[in-house]
Input
Amino acid sequence: MFEQLLFILFSVAAIGSALAVVTMRNPVYCAVSLVVCLFQVAGLFMLLRSPFLAVVQVFIYVGAVMVLFLFAIMLLDMKQIRFERLFSARSWVPYAVLAGIAIEFLAVIYGGGIDALMRVSSTEAVEVKTFGKVLFTEYLLPFEVVSILLLVAMVGAIVMVKRSKG
Amino acid sequence: MVPLSWYIGVGSVLFLIGVAGVLFRRNIIVVLMSIELMLNSVNINLVAFSQYMEDLRGQIFAIFTITVAACEVAVALGILIALVKSRSVHNTDEIDTMKG
Output
């Protein structure tokens, strides 16, 4: 019961702040509400007994990605876009796409018994030790590939920002 | 315990909000943030299924998703800064060099 209350708290806050991300005019407010939303998602990860992922979420998303976003917003001085007209789509296509995806999700969630897939009875958290063992043995190759991807992204970002100067 | 479909429902709602942001907003930075929102909702789904089916693979996949999202943000903001500095565009519909 307590867990369900926590779930409702986290998810209502997450959805509300996500709506704020999409509807706010000032990009700084959008970024701050995205930070709130990411914290709520970290809370949901805690409820799902994955404390390691929750910590990673806070470190990487809130600590690194959002700081990058705020840095870019401050650097580019986006005052003039504050006066963007919201929801000014002229064609019906975006609405149709949204409605299609929503119907599909509803059909998947309430049509077939997703809850029948639940197999779990244990409520113990996944230990970081087992997590690390699996990551560094079975998934060693993807791990290496991702680390190379990070290196390439870092070099690429530096090169692109540098070239625009001179 | 919380039923699995609640988590899937929250993930779907967050994903829909992200799609709406990408489709309706013009500000490039807000579009990028909406993409982050979508990636997060997918992570919720992955971790929920991983926990309820007692399979660690979902969580490992979520870690990789977070890493790739970090790469994506670094490259996208690099492109954005280069674009704004060279042509001073701020909205997605001003970028029409390729006549897309």
In short: Residues 26-90 of chain B form one domain. The mean pLDDT of chain B is 87.
